[in-house]
Amino acid sequence: MDITNPLTAVLAAQVGSADAVAEASAGLPKWGYVLLFGLAILIVWGVLYLWERRNLWLQRTQATEHRTLFDQLCDAQELSAADRERLQSHARRLQLADPSLLFIDPRILESLAASDPRDHFIGVQIFGSLFEASGSESPVKG
Fold first, then answer.
1. What pLDDT was estimated at residue 136?
2. pTM
3. In contact, 12 and 21? CB cutoff 8 Å
């Protein structure tokens, strides 16, 4: 009876036979691999879960930043709630990635103002005399 492991020696002293301890511990490495494999699966699942939560948080943050910029621009131009909703609906209809793009290019609002005088009023409020003087021509050369 060869006792090389100190834990086996302690167990052998308690049980009375090193052979009985060796037989009882023969299946332990298999369970160790199963536990290790289960732990690896949990770690991979946890990392994927955290990655997905991070991506969702980033998407919400980016959407909030776009909305905030649009709201800040509307506040700066003192647009009413009805005008804001009208601009947002135009941005959705035109499939703009960011509704604040309406504040950058007067040609977008000019094309909308041709069909509805309320859009012309919003364009004048945002772009001022630049939009008013343009008439049917684009104030931006390009």
1. 44
2. 0.42
3. yes
